[in-house]
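Tutorial handout. Part one gives the primary structure; part two gives the three-dimensional structure as tokens.
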Amino acid sequence: MLDREGPVPVYKQIAEIIREQIDHGDLTLGDAVPSEAELEAEYGIARMTARRVARELREQGLVYTVQGEGTFVGQPGTPRSAERTPIYHQIAADISARIRKGELQTNKPIPSEKSLMRQYGVAKATVRQAVALLRTQGWTFTVAYRGTYVSPRDEWPSD
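Part two.
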């Protein structure tokens, strides 16, 4: 239980909870720690407070962060657990599934960066990684100053 009125800042209390999970083996080397969005939802905190949690854990030498993928237990270079797919891959997979189902139509725009940022609770850089992956895979194409659109069906990757 967090003491929101006490002398210890909330971000330090949450960092201590995660440190205890690491010490007790609930989180092991290479495991992902909860994302900023997960911390916001679980503890009812602001995004900036969630960022401070990750920074505190990094300063303690317990975790490292990979931009667009998350924060992981251990030092940089520690092999990551295979069970967690980078969030930008998850976003790209969601969008490609919507394209396959026909929810997003050929030659029509995909949702905007801002709407994807809100929907997934991620930074602009993460959304851009997802869109770049979709483009590389052939699901979308981008027109400068216009946006990103669903590619013609014959350009989609084969399953």
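Part three, for discussion. The chain has six helices and four strands. The first helix runs from residue 10 to 23.
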